[in-house]
Amino acid sequence: MRFFNVAGPCNPEDHYMLPATARLPDVQMLIDQKAYFVLHGARQSGKTTAMIELARQLTATGRYAAALVSMEVGAAFNDNPGAAELAILEDWRAALVWQLPPALQPPPWPEAEAGGRLGAALAAWCMTSPRPVVLFVDEIDALQDAALISALRQLRAGFQRRPDAFPWALALIGLRDVRDYKVASGDSARLHTASPFNIKTESLTLRPFTAAEVAELYEQHTADTGQRFTPDALRLAFDLTQGQPWLVNALARQAVQVVVPDPAQPVDAAAESPR
Ligand SMILES: Nc1ncnc2c1ncn2[C@@H]1O[C@H](COP(=O)(O)OP(=O)(O)OP(=O)(O)O)[C@@H](O)[C@H]1O
Ligand SMILES: [Mg+2]
Fold first, then answer.
1. In whole angstroms, what is the distance from residue 239 CA to residue 105 CA?
2. Is the CB of 252 under 6 A from ligand 1?
3. Is CATH 1.10.1060 correct for 211-272?
4. 174-204, pLDDT tens digit by residue?
């Protein structure tokens, strides 16, 4: 039984969903060209869903070892980069075990000094990986101040050693474009450079769903349950949500679970109207 997801990233077993990488048309070329790039966009726009699926596809080609990791747990240690690194690396380990087959998983993280642990871990992994590593680093905005500067500087320092001793390609995923990070890292005089991540080749963002995509998503519910959405309801749903991915799901979930719970009844525009 699939349903409309309103809590966290989508997966195809549980959720009605649109092809997750359809809104990332240029990204394959960036990866093939060994780019370090940024994917930024509003909360709940589908960034994590899209990049997890992209990593899965890249690994499935047999060409790359690709995975998504997060900086989120570092947020509790923004004034202590060394502690942030330890928490982050522990979380990365769990994420990588979950996403990659054993042969592609990193070796034990090496001992390293505070301020160099992320770089050392990536170097150890990439030097032993049988395939080039492609890494997507989610929730970069969780880091601020010293922890953010330290992480970005380690990525920049390793960039020139790729692909043998650092990820072949890398994306930072967050709410802001990277040029805005210097604001978040506090005292910009400490950076001595316009952007601490000035190796970035490109910034990508995710467009909203089109009206046709909203209809396609809602038709998955019709195919599974027989419950139809009238053309007026589909039009109104797009008007109300403007294709914002979470809103598109939340409105449909409300319609089919609360307003019209009987799948024999179609969802019409009256049911979609906000009360
Ligand atoms: N491919 C998709 N098809 C249908 N709905 C989607 C898709 N991707 C995302 N959504 C909707 O968007 C919501 C948020 O997805 P996701 O967690 O991937 O976004 P995010 O941009 O990473 O959010 P955050 O910034 O809060 O981490 C999902 O719960 C779902 O409602
Ligand atoms: Mg996310």
1. 45
2. no
3. no
4. 998 876 666 566 655 444 444 556 666 778 9
pLDDT tens-place string over residues 96-146: 999 999 999 999 999 999 999 999 999 999 999 999 999 999 999 999 888
Contacts for 180-189 with beta carbons within 8 Å, 24 or more apart?
Answer: 181/140, 181/148, 181/152, 184/141, 184/144, 184/145, 184/148, 185/144, 185/145, 185/148, 185/149, 185/152, 186/144, 186/145
Cβ–ligand 1 contact at 18 (below 6 Å): yes
DSSP run (H or E) holding 174:
strand 169-174
> Which ligand does the CA of 70 lie closest to?
2
Among protein residues, the one whose CA lies closest to atom 4 of ligand 1: 17
Q: Is 215 in the pocket of ligand 1 (CB under 6 A)?
A: no
- Residue whose CA lies nearest to ligand 1 atom number 15: 46
Domain ranges in the chain are 27-204, 211-272
Does the Cβ of 45 fall within 6 Å of ligand 1? yes
Q: Which two tokens stand for residue 85?
A: 């690194």
- Return the ligand number nearest the Cα of 11: 1
Residue 212 tokens, joined: 């046709």
Sole residue written with tokens 């990488």: 21
CATH superfamily of 27-204: P-loop containing nucleotide triphosphate hydrolases (3.40.50.300)
